[in-house]
Write a sequence for this structure.
């Protein structure tokens, strides 16, 4: 974890909440540009909207990084404290744990409700139904941009910007709960939504645990990238197969 200044920056909790709320709002809004790219049949418009999304998301990441840096004494990207080989296999194990939790809850949701995908997954499926500019942008977003920015926000800011000296497990739980909300885009009101929310929250908690144990946010980014990359592979293969037929 980061070594923080004695006094939070800004000092006002409300200002920090406003800053954090702005980041969350922009994170939820930015993917809408992919929707505009997908809705257009003109190539240059697709490239334009996809480029806007990339630029906006990078700007969000820079803003979140600056918020975190303003209240941290040590560098944001800390070196691993454990040997590289041990650290690598431990991180692989944590990713497999996260994957097992995802699959278990997803299977439970199917058995109890009959629904096979979350609203977030359905939106991704629509954007990646064809191999085009939108899908390429979606892959960049899901595999590169989102892991970096989301870890800076939901682990970096939540665990350092707000909860500086609070209950160890409480920080992990809150990080997961907040992480789930933008992925759902709604308050769960049905069993299916509740299980989907639990799935995303559990993923966030595992990532928060990794950050708390290692203190190196790049570990979280690597696991997040791996998880999203594995998720995108079947979608990419389906799009290629569709293009060939």
């Amino acid at each position: 974890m980061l070594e923080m200044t004695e006094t939070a920056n800004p000092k006002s909790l409300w200002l920090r909440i406003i800053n954090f709320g702005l980041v969350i709002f922009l994170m939820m809004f930015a993917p809408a540009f992919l929707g505009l790219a997908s809705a257009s049949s003109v190539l240059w418009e697709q490239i334009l909207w996809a480029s806007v999304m990339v630029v906006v998301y990078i700007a969000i990441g820079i803003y979140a990084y600056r918020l975190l840096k303003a209240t941290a004494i040590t560098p944001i990207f800390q070196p691993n404290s454990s040997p590289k080989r041990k650290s690598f296999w431990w991180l692989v194990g944590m990713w497999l744990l996260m994957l097992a939790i995802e699959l278990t809850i997803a299977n439970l949701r199917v058995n109890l409700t009959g629904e096979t995908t979350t609203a977030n997954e359905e939106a991704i499926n629509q954007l990646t139904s064809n191999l085009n500019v939108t899908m390429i942008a979606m892959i960049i977003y899901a595999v590169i941009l989102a892991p970096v920015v989301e870890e800076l926000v939901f682990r970096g800011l939540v665990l350092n910007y707000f909860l500086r000296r609070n209950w160890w497990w409480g920080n992990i739980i809150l990080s997961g709960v907040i992480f789930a909300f933008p992925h759902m885009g709604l308050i769960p009101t049905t069993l299916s939504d509740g299980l989907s929310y639990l799935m995303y929250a559990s993923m966030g908690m595992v990532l928060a645990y990794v950050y708390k144990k290692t203190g190196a946010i790049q570990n979280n980014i690597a696991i997040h990238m791996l998880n999203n990359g594995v998720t995108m592979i079947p979608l990419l293969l389906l799009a290629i197969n569709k293009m060939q037929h």
Notes: The chain has a mean pLDDT of 86. The chain has nine helices and no strands. Residues 84-113 form the longest helix (30 residues).
